[in-house]
Amino acid sequence: MKSIKLHDSIKLVISIAACMLAGFIGQIFTRPSITNWYALLEKPFFTPPSWLFAPVWFLLYTMMGISAFLIWRKGIENHFVREGLVIFLVQLILNTLWSFAFFGLKSPIGGLIVIVPLWTAILLTIINFFRTSMTAAWLLLPYILWVSYATVLNFAIYILNP
Q1: Distance between CA 98 and CA 159 in Å, rounded?
Q2: Which contacts (CB < 8 Å, 24+ apart) does range 142-147 have?
Q3: What is the reported pTM?
């Protein structure tokens, strides 16, 4: 019993750490652009204050990690678990790639090109996770809502900065 709990604890730490690593890598591209390029962009009235992004993403990455853990602990030998974790990994890569495209390349259109498949991959992850754990699927709902909002924001920035 103790080894099962320890094993689950390790899986939980790895799951959350993987999501936080994606966020850290994204910050490598984001941080240098915030005070110069992004600050100079014309932004829509519904743009949140810059200080809000870090705590929101910290919470979302934590929830994403817990969600992935809940699936992983069901057993990697399960076809839906493997499929779900692969889709989860794809969306995590796309999440990081969005930061590179939008902030790293300073390209709102590049961000749009990445964020649409990102949103789709999140939806596919939620659908897949739902088959294995409703809790894991529900934990991703704030994430897809935030990325939906980010998509509209990204589009508005693209339109306002031709």
Answers
A1: 18
A2: 142/59, 142/60, 142/63, 143/60, 143/63, 143/64, 144/119, 146/56, 146/60, 147/115, 147/118, 147/119, 147/122
A3: 0.93
CB atoms within 10 A of CB 86: 11
Query: Angle CA(57)–CA(158)–CA(106) in degrees, nearest 5?
Result: 65
Domain containing residue 83: CATH number: 1.20.1260.100
pLDDT (tens digit, 9 = 90+) per residue, 121-142?
999 999 999 999 999 999 999 9
Contact (CB, 8 A) for 127 and 140: no
What DSSP designation does 37 have? I
Average pLDDT, the chain: 95
Task: Please state, in angstroms and rounded to a whole number, the distance separating the CA atoms of residues 58 and 84.
Answer: 22
Q: How many domains does the chain have?
A: 1
The domain of 147 spans 2-160
Name the residue type at position 30: T
CA–CA distance from 37 to each of 3, 29, 109, 158, 161 (Å)? 50, 12, 15, 13, 12
d(CA 49, CA 53): 8
